[in-house]
Amino acid sequence: MDFGILGPLEISDGGRVLSLRGTKQRALLALLLLHANQVVSTDRLIDQLWGDDPPDSGTAALQVRVSKLRKALGAGGETIVTKAPGYVIRLGSDRLDLHRFERLLSEAERDLRGGDAAQASSKLGDAISLSRGPPLGDLAYESFVQPAIARLEELLLVAQELRIEAELALGRHNEVVSELDALVAAHPLREGLCRQLMLALYRSGRQADALEAYQVARRTLVAELGIVPGPRLQDLERSILRQDRSLDPVAPPTPLRSILVAGVGDRPLEPLLALAEPLARRPPREVIAARLLEGPDALAEASTEVGAACNALRLRGIVARAAVFTSTSPGEDISRLAIEQDVDLVLVADRGQLDDPEVTALLLRALCAVAVAVAVADAVGPEATAGAVLVPFGAMSTTGVRSSSGPGLRRVGR
């Protein structure tokens, strides 16, 4: 069962949205979710649910509310546990949208500090997409919700600022100007947003507009708070006036091409990853480690395995990510993944999955090489040895790999 508070209160049981009737019932669940995995005392729950007009039998009335809430949640009602001096809702990892949001935000902050702006921007985009409107908007009139709403709105705004910071680091200043215009209009006292707007405008060749944005911010701060802009904003204005070269646009990084390592069923990925690793170093490429399964039974185990393999590659300086999913047509799914993910090389251990003419046509359209790692028994030609790599067709040419330009089977490495 999943819960959502980054928008109207939402409860989802296996994809089916549950409806809770009654304001008090929804308010009680919201209170518990705002303090998920923490005990909320009976006194606090009574005070925040009924305010200055509590029922005569406050504790008994609360017990009735909790009982009805558990019943309404069905099997999910077991997550609400009685524990002195009150109640706690026990939620596993990522069962609450706020927890997913906070995890993504924390990871993105680390990525940004580590210089990986692209990864940070992607994670922040995922975090922001969890918002479904004003947090707890259906309970906004409840007094106890007001501080929580303010905190959640601040978190969302922080995520937006960080994502824009990542976008600016990636040289996407033109793309964020209109978004920043709207954010500054909505939050005119937030100097960080004004700084980002000035920088984006200046890098977009709009120096006069950048300076005007500073003057608007200055007038607003003086009128509303009686203060002038802080040192960072003043320093940025001076840098723009003297056209400081340090403000010049950042050249967008060349996107990494990819090597797709595709494991089908229970075939081991390690030999394929060992072949992919040196090819991913020069020139730098991303490794996509994919595991395609016939059914969902082994998804969790496969996700752990592939995730660990990607972490090991990252520790050795290789950009890597995992893809684990079920597939009834692995050859077709591999080819489509190659097309969608800008893949240079598809590395597989079974030529059989490439025999379908439609799959072959898709892979040729992807303009990537396809290499098959074969054992001694499968090797072709008198010179083939264990660990040979065969490229049946493709368009890739790189250090250690020479591919044929059309159909055929050629040994290209070990």
Write a brief caption for the model.
The protein is an alpha/beta fold and 414 residues long. The protein has helices at residues 23-34, 42-50, 58-72, 97-113, 117-128, 145-169, 173-186, 191-203, 207-225, 231-241, 270-279, 299-315, 330-340, 357-365; strands at residues 2-4, 10-13, 16-18, 40-41, 80-83, 86-89, 258-264, 286-293, 320-326, 343-348, 369-374, 388-393, 397-398, 401-402, 410-413.
Task: Give an account of the 3D structure.
With 414 residues, the chain is α/β, with parallel strands linked by helices. It has helices spanning 23-34, 42-50, 58-72, 97-113, 117-128, 145-169, 173-186, 191-203, 207-225, 231-241, 270-279, 299-315, 330-340, 357-365, and strands at 2-4, 10-13, 16-18, 40-41, 80-83, 86-89, 258-264, 286-293, 320-326, 343-348, 369-374, 388-393, 397-398, 401-402, 410-413. Strand 7, helix 11 (270-279) and strand 8 form a beta-alpha-beta unit. Helices cover 47% and strands 16% of the residues. Strands 9-8-7-10-11-12-15 form a 7-stranded mixed sheet, with helices on both faces. Strands 1-2-3 form a 3-stranded antiparallel sheet, with no helix packed on it. Strands 4-6-5 form a 3-stranded antiparallel sheet. Residues 376-386 and 393-414 have low confidence and may be disordered. Helix 4 packs antiparallel against helix 5, helix 7 packs antiparallel against helix 8 (191-203) and helix 8 runs antiparallel to helix 9.
